[in-house]
Fold:
Amino acid sequence: MQLLRCGTTTFTRVGDTVTDTCAFLGPEGTFTHQAALQAAPQGTPLIPCPDVAAVYDAVNSGKSRWGVVAIESSVEGYVVPSLDALVAATNVIAVAETFVEISFDAFVPAGEVGEATEVVGHPVGLAQCSAYIVERGLVPVAASSNAAACRDIKNHQVALAPPVCSDLYPVHRVAHAVEDFHGARTRFFVITQRDQWTRPGTDLAGDTSMIAITPRATGPGVLARFALAFGQHGLNMSSLITRPLKSLSGKYTFIVTVDSPTSSAPMRAVLQDLMAHDDALKTLGVYFRQGQLDQGIDESKIAPGSVDQTSSSMDAARALLWEGNL
Structure:
């Protein structure tokens, strides 16, 4: 038996072989590679994968004991393909989180190059550097990862990638920190096999759970019922995401993040209540929350044109499109 430490939390894992590996979205130099270096047990061999699906497949099948996947960007929100893969995986659970500060440099191939007409990077990275791309009239081209964009760059392209890529690939940096929002972070999950995982004997303060809830009966009041169940037991829902059930119109899975481990008495009561209402439940992760939730919102981040209790009745009527008051 060994221990995995991520932040201040200690997790217990069962099974211990010299072939334990950690899969990540490769190649070397990706933000996920940086996250894996931070989070994987010391000395664990890191195995690059060509795409995120391959990381989940490696863990789900047992080819890798661990995996590291991006789950949420502070700019672009949840990484939907990664979240959907976590929901769909039969034998994967998130057991820790880690954060990486995100900044993009612009690179061109080393040596003589032609005029750049395209910009290449991971789709999430391209979205975070839109101003740089638009100002230069570049055509976005998606890559499997930002590091792969540097590795495979062509003479007419600019690659957007982590600064470390300048030390790994034959490229030349032409601009530094080209992201739209400075100070952004991406949250990553450490994942492992569900059937190989055991929790410590006692609940840990700061533990957070991510639960997928699929209601079999839909209609008015479904979300209110979820919120009421958690609220009545003093549990905070810090996030709620809706994902469609594939190929079924108007049917959804609701993914909630709750500030409690699933094994606590209040959480057990809520989950039993949800099952009694014929909801299907799946725990996607139980992990220690790194740091504290923000204690407020910067007013500059609120959607332009929003109204609140300080707004005039006329402004509220216009903003909220109240019929007869426009």
DSSP finds nine helices and 18 strands in the chain.
